[in-house]
Design brief:
The longest helix has about 55 residues, at about 70-125. This protein has 4 helices and 4 strands. Helices cover about 65% and strands about 10% of the residues.
Length: about 170
């Protein structure tokens, strides 16, 4: 949906409103899997970090370094620094994967939403038209197959019309 504003100098600004979730059930499920995989991977790396510092501390004690030696304070500080680095990296990773998961889910949900809406419109008696998905969307071959079907089974006069996604529209 387009929203046009005119600023104080008379310049036109066009804002395109995008739908964040086209198919919430699918997209939220997909994002849950993505974040779950990220959490599992992060847990493995954090466990490896804990194990590393535990093994290092155990080795130092086994070779006779006294427990009050300053190397153990250094090791503890380094462990805390690694915790902060790990936390920052985890936040960045989850944010990046959530963004990419949403972007990829749009490229799946958008074409399926468009196909569904166009087919429902045609089934309700609307004009029979070719279907086209946005550039970069997945399942381009589905639109091509649908259009080939239309060309074969629908009189040629109605297939010359096409439905194109409007510029900036996510799905319809």
């Amino acid at each position: 949906m387009k929203h046009i504003e005119i600023d104080s100098e008379g310049r036109k600004h066009v804002f395109i409103r995008r739908t964040l979730l086209i198919n919430p059930k699918f997209q939220l499920s997909f994002l849950t899997y993505i974040v779950g995989i990220a959490a599992f991977t992060l847990a493995i790396f954090y466990a490896a970090k804990v194990f590393f510092f535990y093994q290092t501390r155990s080795y130092m004690m086994s070779v006779g370094i006294p427990a009050d030696h300053m190397i153990f304070d250094f090791l503890t500080r380094q462990s805390h620094v690694m915790n902060w680095i790990f936390l920052a990296a985890a936040v960045i990773e989850v944010a990046f994967l959530a963004f990419m998961g949403l972007k990829i889910s749009h490229r799946v949900a958008g074409p399926l939403y468009r196909l569904t809406q166009d087919m429902l419109r045609m089934a309700a008696g609307g004009p029979i038209k070719n279907i086209h998905f946005r550039k970069g969307d997945y399942f381009q071959e589905v639109a091509e197959a649908f259009n080939k079907h239309q060309e074969r089974h629908v009189p040629q006069t109605t297939t010359s019309e096409t439905t194109q996604p409007e510029a900036g529209q996510n799905a319809a």
